[in-house]
Specification:
Length: about 325
């Protein structure tokens, strides 16, 4: 237990004594989305188990609206003393807020503590469609411009990925009919019900519609056990095509940057407590039962992951407008 704390404190050049006074009061954990979603559920898990390491209760506050901007702006308006934290899918929503919908904040305003739960993206067609491979689907798109339909969550990694794939094919965004939804559930339901021809969406949740779809590719560099489908660039290799792969929804615990820079001892203590929480058998069991990830990336890797995704989003964000 104390070994993790010592390592984290050493990384930030502070001593354990400097961090002893924090936290002295309850912590608020902001979720900039609706109650019941994946981010809200993860936040409530952290609010249950993280207090055992910090010694103070954590209250979850949901402030949805404007694609996450309302809650995020409220979070950034609070004192940067570590008593207000946020759980958010940094990819894609912070990037979309900044690049597409005019948010006033910047990625550099946030200190990303950990990327705990990262989903990958799946390309699938309805099971009754004739397409058996990515190549067959691409041929159909080329032969029938504007006729095939795809379901996506607006502003999601899946949405951007559709546009990037079309660009890699040398086609414009209107080469397919893009049907947008406000969440992954309706997006998947449209595919399962046959209202659209295909979908590019987070693989999380697709298990619930496996009987209605045919997976064609996963947006990873390796195969996965859940879906019998090749990695996208493996599927595109016969066509001399490649495309960048965006991480799916990257759910992160975030502090305001000022907490990290002004209170490095407290920030390190929080990171160490979070790390220990993720190693807790009780929390791991809870995450497994709720089908959530339990990765410990740490602040440096989480920041690198989020910023890399942001740069890819920056390259292609004009396609969303």
């Amino acid at each position: 237990m104390f070994k993790i704390l010592a390592i984290c404190l050493a990384l930030f050049g502070v001593t354990q004594a400097q961090a002893q006074d924090w936290p002295k009061k309850p912590i608020t954990l902001v979720v900039p989305f609706d109650v019941g979603g994946s981010v809200d559920r993860l936040a409530r898990g952290l609010a249950t188990y993280l207090p055992k390491e910090l010694g103070q209760p954590i209250t979850v506050v949901d402030r949805p609206g404007a694609g996450g901007q309302i809650g995020t702006n409220w979070f950034l308006a609070q004192p940067d003393d570590g008593y207000t934290l946020m759980v958010t899918p940094a990819t894609p929503y912070l990037a979309v807020d900044i690049l597409v919908t005019g948010a006033t904040y910047k990625m550099s305003d946030f200190a990303f503590i950990n990327a705990q739960w990262t989903d990958y993206t799946l390309l699938a067609v309805h099971k009754d469609r004739p397409y058996k491979t990515v190549g067959e689907l691409m041929d159909a798109i080329r032969a029938n411009p504007g006729k095939l339909s795809v379901s996506v969550t607006y502003g999601s990694v899946g949405h951007v990925t559709v546009l990037v794939m079309l660009q890699a094919m040398g086609l414009s965004a209107d080469a397919v009919r893009i049907v947008t939804f406000d969440g992954g559930g309706p997006t998947r339901q449209a595919l399962a019900g046959g209202q659209v021809d295909f979908s590019i969406e987070q693989a999380e949740g697709a298990e619930t519609i496996k009987d209605f779809i045919r997976p064609l590719a996963v947006f990873l560099d390796h195969r996965v056990a859940m879906f019998d489908a090749p990695p996208i660039n493996e599927a595109l290799k016969p066509y001399n095509m490649t495309m960048p792969i965006l991480n799916g929804s990257v759910r992160t615990l975030v502090a305001p940057l000022g907490f990290k820079t002004k209170h490095p001892a407290e920030y390190a203590k929080l990171a160490a407590a979070y790390h220990r929480t993720l190693e807790s058998p009780d929390f791991k069991d809870w995450l497994k039962r709720n089908r959530m990830g339990d990765d410990w990336t740490g602040p440096e890797k989480a920041t690198e992951m989020v910023n890399t995704n942001f740069e890819v989003m920056r390259q292609y964000h004009q396609l969303l407008k």
